[in-house]
Amino acid sequence: MNKYAVCRYLATGNSFISLHYEYLLDATTVHEIVRDTCDVIWECLKAAYMSARDKNDWIWTADEFYERTNFPNCIGAVDGKHIRIRKPNES
């Protein structure tokens, strides 16, 4: 399995089992290759994209979020998640 196959996995979300059949490798081997590739990507990019933050950075982020959303003490939100909610009986 080469780096392009790993990128294809990461881009398409194919399961390890489907890649196991596609590349004739053991599913455990596929898992290790993908994990190792992700570790290398993380080590290369974490300094640029996940820099260490101090308390003031978090406070600034919460303040910015509050200004945009009027929602206090929050540093962000996830959009697009649908949650099924059932109303309580007799309400």
Can you characterise this structure?
The protein is an all-alpha fold and 91 residues long. It has a domain of 47 residues. Helices cover 62% and strands 0% of the residues. Helix 2 packs across helix 3. The longest helix has 23 residues.
Q: Which oligomerization state do the chains in this entry correspond to?
A: single chain
Task: Give the number of DSSP strands.
Answer: 0
Structural class, please?
mainly alpha
Task: Give the biggest beta sheet.
Answer: none
The residue-averaged pLDDT reads: 79
Series of H and E elements = HHHH
Share of helical residues: 55-70%
The whole-angstrom Rg is 21 Å
How many helical stretches? 4
The low-pLDDT segments are none
What is the terminal separation in angstroms? Answer: 57 Å
Summarize the structure.
The protein is mostly helical and 91 residues long. It is 62% helix and 0% strand.
Provide keyphrases for this structure.
91 residues; mainly alpha; 62% helix
SSE blueprint and pairings:
Elements: H1 3-12, H2 16-23, H3 27-49, H4 55-69
Helix pairs in contact: 2-3
